[in-house]
Design a protein that fits this description.
Elements lengths: L12 E10 L14 E8 L6 E3 L24 H16 L6 E5 L5 H8 L3 E6 L2 H9 L3 E4 L4 H9 L4 E7 L8 H11 E12 L1 H7 L11 E2 L2 H10 L2 E9 L5 E8 L7 H16 L11 H21 L4 E4 L3 H9 L10 E2 L17 E2 L2 H6 L3 E4 L5 H14 L3 E4 L5 E3 L1
Parallel strand pairs: 4-5, 4-7, 5-6, 7-8, 12-13, 12-15, 13-14, 15-16
Antiparallel strand pairs: 1-2, 2-3, 3-9, 8-11, 10-11, 16-17
Length: about 400
């Protein structure tokens, strides 16, 4: 019987079981390539309420087409996000020229460059050599390693102490969550701050985001499950924000227990998120019941729609060759029978085939040439932004957009 990665209690309660599922973050370089299949099951710890996969294989650690899930790419206009975040954080954490900001497992150098432009000392931690090269090219210090307590202890011996630690969309993907958080707590200055961003389990459940369940994501977090884990490492929740990006995220602000001071507004925000979670309830097994059935109903709806469209002689093309988008295609079994191909704006994702469903990824220009009847928008949280780009052209030939999550929706 598997054990909880946080509290070691036996995992008994299933939340969702997607069976033998393609590892969607490994693109196929030819149409005849074989997809890697692995079981994908998510369980709930009834002791600490941490929702987690039972996957332990390292074979799912490769990241789909250039680390799409990582770090600082939080919005379609990341420079705006970074500017606002840096300004706000500088004020809250009281950062100055003597302060040190550490970005853990970052995707690129933009966030640290912005902090450095404010005359703050910066350090990047990454296990990716090409990202380390980008950092060094921008005159940013970098440590190439997998983050954990041993790395933190080594840096501490060298006199490193962090006034701010940032990890954007990293925590759900770490194998050893205790080691990761312990490293943060060890190197954090006495009055320092930690900022974690991650998808919120509440949003995932409310919107039925089955596309967010992938092999490489180990955890699906609520505050309810994280607060005891943080406290175990001497960290306390100082504030929380709800963010609309990627279908719904939380940004949590942590401090050492000895340094934490919650003002009334911060305390109200924390209480508000916890109240929302407990009303579901995420601190009771009953709150997790029925999710699989809801997903199966949603899958049936989109399949029925596309089957009917096919019977009427209409053609459908999907938009967005991302891991989440491919998970939707595979779980719903949307392949060549119902969808012609997938388009994506990123050149590195083109001329590949999606694992499992086997759909080819083509450039956006194919849409104007082929004039499909329906555009299935896979990044559903950006559906209006994406449809605004294509709606005028589609209207010229009578086409529409369709979205499967959070519910079947037609855009025209």
């Amino acid at each position: 019987m598997p054990k909880c990665r946080a509290c070691q209690a036996p995992l008994k309660k299933n939340w969702i079981d997607l069976g033998q599922t393609p590892v969607v973050n490994v693109p196929l370089l030819s149409q005849t390539s074989q997809s890697l299949l692995q079981p994908l099951k998510v369980m709930v710890c009834e002791q600490c309420w941490l929702v987690q996969t039972t996957v332990t294989s390292s074979s799912v650690s490769a990241h789909f087409w250039g680390n799409e899930r990582q770090g600082t790419k939080l919005l379609s206009s990341p420079s705006s996000y970074i500017t606002n975040f840096v300004r706000k954080t500088m004020l809250r954490a009281g950062l100055d020229a003597d302060s040190l900001v550490i970005d853990l497992k970052l995707n690129n150098s933009e966030l640290l460059k912005s902090f450095k432009n404010k005359f703050t000392k910066v350090l990047g931690i990454t296990s990716e050599e090409h990202i380390a090269a980008e950092l060094r090219a921008n005159d940013i210090n970098v440590e190439v390693s997998d983050w954990g307590k041993l790395v933190a202890e080594k840096l501490s011996r060298d006199g490193v102490s962090a006034d701010l630690i940032v990890a954007n969309n990293v925590l759900p993907f770490v194998d050893d969550i205790h080691d990761f958080v312990a490293g943060c707590a060890h190197i954090l200055a006495e009055n320092g701050w930690i900022v974690f961003n991650f998808p919120h389990l509440v949003a995932l459940m409310e919107h039925g985001q089955f596309d967010a369940i992938t092999h490489d994501q180990r955890f699906y977090f609520s505050l309810t499950s994280l607060m005891p884990l943080f406290l175990h490492h001497g960290l306390v929740l100082a504030d929380v924000e709800t963010l609309p990006v990627r279908g719904g995220e939380l940004r949590v602000w942590l401090r050492h227990v000895s340094a934490s001071r919650l003002d009334d507004m911060c305390a109200m925000r924390v209480a508000g998120v916890l109240s929302q979670e407990w009303s579901m309830p995420l601190d009771d097994a009953a709150g997790y019941n029925g999710f699989q059935e809801r997903i199966e109903q949603r899958i049936a709806e989109v399949r029925d729609f596309l089957i009917k469209a096919k019977a009427e002689g209409k053609r459908t093309v999907a938009y967005g060759a991302t891991a989440k988008g491919n998970m939707l295609l595979n779980v719903a079994q949307l392949n060549h029978d119902l969808i012609d191909y997938v388009v994506d704006a990123v050149p590195s994702r083109q001329a590949c085939w999606l694992p499992g469903c086997g759909l080819e990824v083509k450039p956006l220009e194919c849409l104007k040439d082929d004039k499909p009847d329906y555009l299935l928008i896979l990044p559903w949280h950006r559906r209006y932004e994406i449809w605004e780009e294509f709606s005028e052209a589609f209207r010229d030939w009578g086409g529409q957009a369709v979205v499967a999550i959070p519910s079947l929706e037609l855009l025209s």
